[in-house]
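Troubleshooting log. The previous structure file for this entry was overwritten by mistake, so regenerating from the original sequence record. Sequence copied from the archived sheet and checked twice against the printout by T.R.
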Amino acid sequence: MFAIQWLCILAKISNIPMQKEYHIRPVQLQDNKPLAHVLREVLVEFGVPKVGTAYADPELDDMFHTYTKKRHSYWVVHKDNSVLGGAGIAPLRDGPANICELQKMYFAPEARHVGMGKRMLLQLLKIAIEFGFELCYLETMPNMHAAQRLYTAAGFGYVDAPIGNTGHYSCPVWMTKSLV
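Regenerated output below.
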């Protein structure tokens, strides 16, 4: 039964049209500076605290090297050679080996509502399964309503407490999705 539901979700997400001028590719070394800028700008736009969230993560300034590690993957959305955001998957820090975390999924305003989030999420969930993860965890903010709608549409559910030790003590919304 679960497999059928998962296939239905994948079919819905994969049929989302994507505007041709937007592209998704693995993070590259030259993306570090513009990506850090875009991600921090989005966090400021949404009023996210600068402490206890992704804003303060040291890896935000070196995403390329952070996500070249085993079982890590980060993808960038770009248009006309401009970085517009991205998202990644990595093992959950201080969590069980079978749990990954959806990380740093943020997009500049011009990359929103054009199917990028759905495409990115689908791609990262496939990668997480290929990496052997069985559960995907994420943290978000209460006012990020569109993101939460995307996550619930993809099968994520809310949980009552954080998992692992991400260091994001200012993120009070936690969600998980089974990958098996």
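The first strand starts at residue 23 and ends at 26. Archived copy saved in two places this time.
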